[in-house]
């Protein structure tokens, strides 16, 4: 996976300041949300075994709107955190293997999610919603869970900020 970050050079002109893999990628496995194993990876794997997920931290800011020279909070990130500090936002890419079940959870974030490929089921207290490539969903800090089936891997793009 390639991540291109733009910024300002010493003369105040727009330029590319980073071009390479995401600074922080995590592999998540485990039987349920209470027993997760999380490991750092150098990049997002092309394939994952069943019941496993990879998360690439693409960008995070401490405040919104971000200043042009705001530091990328993913720099030096060594452990996965579901929510990064501040009132800014986090941009993530996730690859889900087959048969993943996240377990119900509630976050203090506004989540904007777009399905890039594959299928995933959003579980809510009163129903489930089947999502596939091209679908988007907004989750404003509500209790929810995720479940993938036994078909192709699922790719999601997440934008999150503190609700």
TrEMBL record:
It comes from Saccharothrix australiensis. This is Cupin type-2 domain-containing protein. Coiled coil: none annotated. It comes from the Bacteria. The lineage of its organism: Bacteria, Bacillati, Actinomycetota, Actinomycetes, Pseudonocardiales. InterPro entries: Cupin_2 (IPR013096), OryJ/VirC-like (IPR047142), RmlC-like_jellyroll (IPR014710), RmlC_Cupin_sf (IPR011051). Residues 102-154 form the Cupin type-2 domain.
